[in-house]
Amino acid sequence: MENKPIRILLIEDNAGDARLIQEQLKEVPEVAYVFCCVPKLQDGLEHLSRHETDIVLSDLSLPDSPGLETFKRLQSEISGVPVVVVTGFDNESSALDAVREGAQDYLIKGQVNARGLSRTILYAIERYRTQSTLRSLSLTDELTGLYNRRGFITLGEQALKSAQRAKSHLYLYFADLDGLKKINDTFGHPDGDRAIAGAAEVLRKTFRQSDIVARIGGDEFAALAAEDQTGGSDILISRLMGNLSHYNLQNPHAYKISISVGVTRYNPEVPVPMEELLSQADKVLYVSKEKKHAALQPVWSRKARQWTGAALAIGLLSVAFFGWQRWKRPPVPVLIPGPRVTAHPLPVPVPAPAPVSVSTPSPSPKPVRPPAPVAHPFAGVRSSSNKNRREVQPPVVPLTMPSASADWKSPTPPAITLHQELIPRAISIARFTYQETILPPDSRVTFTIVGSGFTPEFQKVLEVYSGSPYVQVKDLRLATINEVQGDLVIHPDAPTQYVFPRVLINDSPVFQASNPFAIIRQGDVLNIVFTKMDENGHAGHFRVYTNLDPALAHEFHIAPSAESLEISPLEFNLPYRVEGVLRISDSVPRGDYGLLAFLGAREVFRKDHLIQITRPTLGSTGFVQKVMAQIPFRRPGDTVDIVIQGSGFTPGLAALLKARVDGQEMGESSFRYISPGTLQGLFTIPAEALQKSFNVSLYEGREVTYRARDVFTIVPPNWIENLDVNPPARPGKKSLLKVVGRDFSRDFAKTLRLETDDPGIHISRPEWMNPSTLSATLEIDDAVNPGDYVINLKSEGVSLKPQGGNLVTIGPSQ
Q1: Which of 186, 298, 351, 578 could form a disulfide linkage to 444, CB 3.0–4.6 angstroms apart?
Q2: Residue 147: DSSP 8-state
Q3: pTM (2 d.p.)
Q4: Strand runs (DSSP E) across 12-113, as ranges?
Q5: Which range is most confident: 346-360, 361-375, 637-651, 653-667?
Q6: Is 268 helix (H, G, I), strand (E, B) or coil?
């Protein structure tokens, strides 16, 4: 924490008090603090929604939120950020109430010195991180009271180690609640939950207290028992069936609970990791389910594979002949941001992706070598390339440094023509989501199509193409008026790949998932991406997307393409993520470098041109990585807060740098030094400024050193940014729905209508609160199912869509 500035959001309407806190913390030189000060709670919430923040210091009494309600709103609307209440109310009861609600601390203005304030901030951050870690390590399933998957894996691995030391055998039982979907569809999800709880009760009575019993998925359970405790798996399964019959007799329902079980034996002489043991038991379970309910099997059976020996072979050979490259790599070049680790880099803005315009993917371009080092190019990235698969190198394109949240979901979707005219007028499709985004072969996952106006008739004409011949779509169903759900069933032989599903009507695509899901075979690597670069420019953090069990993790390592680069010890987040840091020294020659992944001595993946080392581009030490506005949407008369991110900045270098807005006279901005990776400047937007997006150019003397596109946008009056619901919407409850934006007029509030397709969701006419907020009452009937719902906004017959989207989430009943 000493080497990284602490980003503080200070919500304080008294400018003198805000300045005092900043001046106090300047007296603590060993810790660097970066401030953003806002006078209102709503401004603070907007900042938190767009920017990473380490801690919030907030007054309780603000112009738009009085008293303890301020903290309650912060607590309900943000997550992952600790809050310290700083107020002038010397009231012990308020202090206790704030702490009971979750505040990390409570400080009285003027009663704490600089060291005490700094210590409170540091302790609050560390205490919050510890609490978050403990919460994330929760081992219990809330519905059943059994262990959850994390608990089962954690305790099960310990049990396997003990069994190996004692040379004792264990049985792993993998159980599946039969027909849960039918129960949910016929009787509703509350009955489905009762069925899950009933199955858990049966399992709890069957196994002993010393056994490890868990609910590891929606309708999946697992248990680990010692051989000498059960007297053999057949005896225990017989006991399970007896307890199940007794439960059905004692708890008469319109349905009966049925459980299928697969069993595997752990041999300490041939130890395997827990995930492998689960996989073995899972395969036995599916054989059991084939015999019991063939229609419910989640993956192809062996008989089905034999049956498709001719048809499937012909189909696969045909696809292999005409489309092998579509399986082995994305159909268009995939460009993923990755910074060049450098003493101080300067990237060029990312070009816009090609528009969706053709019905079949374009052929991949020939490999292109990267250009000689210019400015600070960030190398383009391969699509994905395990060693045993053909790979194509897309063109190297200078890219901006990704944020810390950069993820594997960066490939460009295949270029296709979307026939949105086939979607009925009263229906819209907003997004395509997955229950899990990274999956192994021979697995199954639920997906959800979110939109509005869905009907049974629409669902019948709807089709979903998975995006891969190795993935089948099963059980497409209408869940709610806003959700269509289905299952993606992944073939055991599926290769490692990104997959973009499509929604079809009359065999024509009408919607394509903007983000893919990924299939990763065990031992393969899907990709390596950069996630963050240190402010000194000499180190970068990277993430490997792979599929490793504990045994493979011991063999897995990353090596740079040059010995002069250093890789820190890897951090494993099994099974799918591995984190690491790449460090360089001043002696490393300029040029392009990559990373290689190995299992033992075998190379399994290579990412060439991942980084480029070059000289500084600003003064003798500085490198501009990104230019951004803290709040990108503004109105004439506003002040735009410009932030430059990079590395190697110094106070003297900041004084040399100037900025101008292209195409609009807004004066010249000088910059203030914040940290080695951050400079800050201001522009004032004139009243006559045009409503459009503006570029910003940086100058060192008269020379343009960097030009950033679309840094901020001037929006029109009555512009809607997002919808805000507080408290969170739930069936049987009322909430306040706020329309948040800029320069709302009272006339606009009178003409605005908020509607939804679900008759159980009631929205009152919005009322004008202030120029940035309209409010309405949102009331949810008890019968409304949890999920995402589209709110349709119209003014004088014209449909409006907020910048942040028009979906509202309704949570489960409490």
Answers
A1: 298
A2: B
A3: 0.48
A4: 33-38, 55-58, 83-87, 105-108
A5: 637-651
A6: coil
